[in-house]
Amino acid sequence: MSRGYYAESPPRPLGQRTVAGITAALRSWLEELQATGGYRGLVVLHSVSPVYAGSLLARILRDVYGDVLCIAPREAREPLRGDCSRLESPGAIDRLLGTENSAVVLVVPRLLRPNLLAAAAETVRGGGVVALAVPPLGEWRPGGDESIGAYRRYLVNRLGAARALFWADYDASIVYRQALPPGRAQAPPGPESYRARSPVHRRLLEAAATLDQARALDEIVLHIRRRGRSVLVTGDRGRGKSGLLGLVAAYLAASHMVGFVPVTAPSPGSVQGFFRVLGAALARLGVRHWTMERGGLVLGVAGPWFHFRYHTPDRVEPGAFTIVDEAAALGPMRLRRLASRSPRLLAATTIHGYEGSGRVLAKMVEAILPEPRLVVWLEHPVRYPPGDPLEEWLYETFMLRAEAPPPPRWPPGRLEALELDRVKLADDYTLLSRVYGILVQAHYRNEPDDLALILDAPHHRLYALLADDTPVAVVDASLEDWDTAYEARIMPDLLAQASPSATRARGLRVVRIAVHPGLQRRGLGTRLLGYVEEQARGMGLDWLGAVFGQPDVLGFWRRNGFYVVYVSPLPSKATGEHNIAVARPLSGLGEEVVLTAARDTLRKLLLAGHSLYRGLTAEAYAAVLEGAPELAQQPLAGLTEEQRHRLSRALEGQLDVEAVLDVLWLLLVNHVLASGGLREPFEEKDRWIVAARVLQGKTMSDIAAGLRVSLQEARESLRRVLEQLAAMQHNRLA
Ligand SMILES: CC(=O)SCCNC(=O)CCNC(=O)[C@H](O)C(C)(C)COP(=O)(O)OP(=O)(O)OC[C@H]1O[C@@H](n2cnc3c(N)ncnc32)[C@H](O)[C@@H]1OP(=O)(O)O
Ligand SMILES: Nc1ncnc2c1ncn2[C@@H]1O[C@H](COP(=O)(O)OP(=O)(O)OP(=O)(O)O)[C@@H](O)[C@H]1O
Predict the structure, then answer these.
(1) I need a labelling partner for 373 at 20 to 30 A (CA). Which of 33, 166, 616, 677 fits?
(2) Which helix (H) or strand (E) holds 559?
(3) With contact defined as beta carbons under 8 Å apart, do 370 and 227 qualify?
(4) For ligand 1, atom 2, which residue shows the shortest CA distance?
């Protein structure tokens, strides 16, 4: 929802005070904030010395709250040491996410990463504040020295919309803005009055933090007792989802329903809340238990007959019950594997949150969990009241609830592609939220940093297709060449693996492309991509490229003339998917670079299918092998006399196909090399099966289970392909 934001620079000061007046004003604002009964707020203090401002803020906040966590870069930490109850570096935020603080001071002399701000706020309990110590407004560059200034402009606009804010310049003694929400915060209803339908222990029910959590616990216990296979707990961050899993785990342990229970999540930090609540609930129920810790983190809770133990997602082996926190962050591949092998699964996932989430992802998680499945939604935040102004500001500012807007009237009167002016976009919240709402679907994981990057990164460009002025398709793209900073340079390095000329080539990488979900498959993506290509040609670039994880969109890129130029042998830690890079040449040099890389990739995919690319699903592997006639190249040596003999016996039915897999391998590899890819005339399913068995070396039983076909069907596929390849070879020789 957009509120009364206003165009930037400079905000009208509320008034000039003395330096002492600023601190007094801040103290009385903090008092008023506390009097709201639990709302949290934001403090922004500008100063030529952010370190000095940070230490001042730390002293005031420590005075008011008793504790304050300071987060500051290395060079700023020493002067702050005496003023903070805890001092950490910005890199430690992941570790801090499980902690609770009354106040957090962020000293940010340069880049203000939205992820850091959002995560810091996540650790603040009701009534507390996040305070930023930053340079004077005129010099403030939260997007970094290279930024185009759009993110700064946007932030300043958004500060104008914050409902609980103290914003001042300490040196100039100016208060820019001071705001507090009217009325008192209402605590969410507690579990006391809830009447359970399941046989859940009363004491356990009363360990719930909110009525919501108690109700969900009751529903889950009922579901489990009725032999439900999976449970998904969803909601925004800080709703007590992990805590609820802890309560359910305590129920399972206390009822002697479990022995060894594997617990997984992207990092051990994410399950601290789970273990904390589990331990507290077991204590409440009088169940003897102990905890296993390493490096200050709890990694397990065990008792005489049960053991809940954390494992990293790549190591976890399913148990009779498996617990998965932050399930979406495991990625679809890993989650699917886990779900198919776990008799019963308890999972939680954030719908909108700070470290990569979104509705697309939550839907994906839901679809993967086996039936009978129960989905419960937790509405109320645990640590602060509903309607908290700091949470609202963060969610609105970093568009954490971004969703595609309602689609415009169709067909539209006018359809126009253009490059968006990002500085202007910073002043137009409605347009920006529509653009972003479309764009977030191109990616499973969206985080606050993404918005800043799209708005502000100097090498990014933003394109949109407008239907009667409403965005219906969006592209975020990044200019890349050999001079691009290493961290931001992706395609040039991938292309240069095979093609030395890639160091001379310049291109545009489509970081994300998305079409309004209600308007896909009508040519809009193709049309906008065409416009982006025109722009890239206009800039004299050599290639247009993209890198992505979902192999199912490969069809779109192929239809638009893109070649696969790289496939990552390692799955992404975050999603378990293998990144695929595609490119389309735009110049003579581009043609040389892209086709060289594409031919080499095809050969590598074929010859290292059983080693580097064995981890790809059969479907994904066959999809990247599809190639194009232009990629045809020199085949390997032909069959020996003996191989030919075996082949003819196999074709006569006297030998099993497994006895001629080496022959099938050679025929297949030579066919793919000579024709530039694995396509027709083979049926799609035959391609998956033959690629997985012959090139990736997977077992027939793994293939049958993965593709949901019978062993018989898989064997018939192999035989069919063998016959087709032998016939093709025969025709060539004849
Ligand atoms: C770098 C990245 O961002 S990769 C991620 C891409 N984005 C997403 O996955 C977000 C969700 N999807 C979308 O936004 C859109 O569907 C896009 C961008 C993938 C494609 O745009 P659309 O307008 O839907 O596609 P368009 O109509 O132009 O498709 C042209 C052809 O490409 C192929 N194609 C399009 N989408 C797909 C797909 N998801 N899978 C396979 N083939 C596809 C089809 O052959 C299609 O022709 P057809 O509809 O006649 O069969
Ligand atoms: N029943 C409970 N009793 C005590 N504390 C709880 C309970 N449930 C949750 N909490 C605490 O409230 C805070 C937020 O809860 P939790 O971490 O479960 O939320 P979440 O919805 O899983 O959010 P996130 O997505 O941030 O993990 C945590 O500090 C957690 O320990």
Answers:
(1) 616
(2) helix 554-559
(3) no
(4) 512
Residue whose C-alpha is closest to residue 513's, from 561, 556, 567: 556
Report CA 535 to chain centroid distance, whole Å: 29
For residues 70 and 113, what is the distance between their CA atoms, to the nearest angstrom? 16
Q: Which ligand is nearest to the CA of 490?
A: 1
Beta strands in 321-469 (DSSP E): 321-324, 344-350, 373-378, 415-419, 460-467
**With b meaning 16 or more CB within 10 Å and e meaning fewer, what string describes 39-60?**
bbbbbbbbbebbbbbbbbbbbb
User: For residue 733, what are the contacts with CB-CB under 8 A and spacing of at least 6?
Assistant: none
Q: Do the domains at 15-179 and 202-378 have one common CATH topology? A: yes
Q: Residue 315 gets which letter from DSSP?
A: T
CB count in 10 Å sphere of residue 140: 19
Q: Kindly indicate whether the domain formed by 202-378 is annotated with CATH number 3.40.50.300.
A: yes
Phi, psi of 213 (to 5 degrees): -65, -40
Please name which of 405, 554, 408 lies closest in space to residue 467, comparing C-alpha atoms.
408
pLDDT of 66-83, one tens digit each? Answer: 999 999 999 888 889 999
Give the type of residue at 433.
S
pLDDT, tens digit, 9 for 90 and up, residues 637-671: 889 999 999 999 999 999 999 999 999 999 999 99
Least confident interval from 352-361, 542-551, 584-593, 623-632: 352-361
Residues in the chain: 734
For the chain, domain boundaries? 15-179, 202-378, 416-596, 641-733
Q: Which residues are annotated as a binding site?
A: 213, 383, 513-515, 559
Interacting residues of 132 by C-beta distance below 8 A, sequence separation 6+: 42, 43, 44, 45, 105, 106, 108, 112, 117
Atom of ligand 2 nearest to the CA of 378: 21
* 15-179 has CATH 3.40.50.11040 classification: yes
Confidence grade of residue 6 (pLDDT, cut at 50, 70, 90) = very low
Element (H, E) at 107: strand 101-107
Q: What's the CA-to-centroid distance between 594 and ligand 1, angstroms? A: 22
Residue of 444, 553, 558, 582 best suited for mutating to test ligand 1, as the one with most atoms within 8 Å of CB: 553
Q: Bigger pLDDT: 641 or 447? A: 641
Task: Note the pLDDT tens digit of each residue in 19-30.
Answer: 678 999 999 999
Cα–Cα distance measured from residue 167 to residue 22, given in angstroms and rounded to the nearest whole number: 10
556 CA distance to ligand 1 middle (Å): 5
Q: What is the pLDDT of residues 391-408, one digit of tens each?
A: 999 999 999 888 888 889
Q: Diameter of the chain by CA atoms?
A: 98
Per-residue model confidence as pLDDT tens digits over 169-208:
999 999 999 999 998 999 888 899 899 999 999 999 999 9
Distance CA 346, CA 219 (A): 13
Q: Ligand 1 — pocket residues by CB below 6 A?
A: 441-442, 510, 512-515, 520-526, 546, 548, 552-553, 555-556, 559
Output the pLDDT for position 384: 92
| pLDDT at residue 614 is higher than 60 | yes
Residue 722: enclosing H or E segment and its boundaries? Answer: helix 711-733
Report, at the CATH architecture level, how domain 416-596 is classified. Answer: 3-Layer(aba) Sandwich (3.40)
Ligand in nearest proximity to the CA of 526: 1
Helix or strand or coil: residue 142?
coil
SS (H, E, C) 575-598: CCCCCEEEEEECCHHHHHHHHHHH
Angle CA 153–434–427, to nearest 5:
20
pLDDT at residue 26 in the model:
96
Cα(245) to centroid(ligand 2), Å: 10
Distance of alpha carbon 711 from its chain centroid, rounded?
Answer: 37
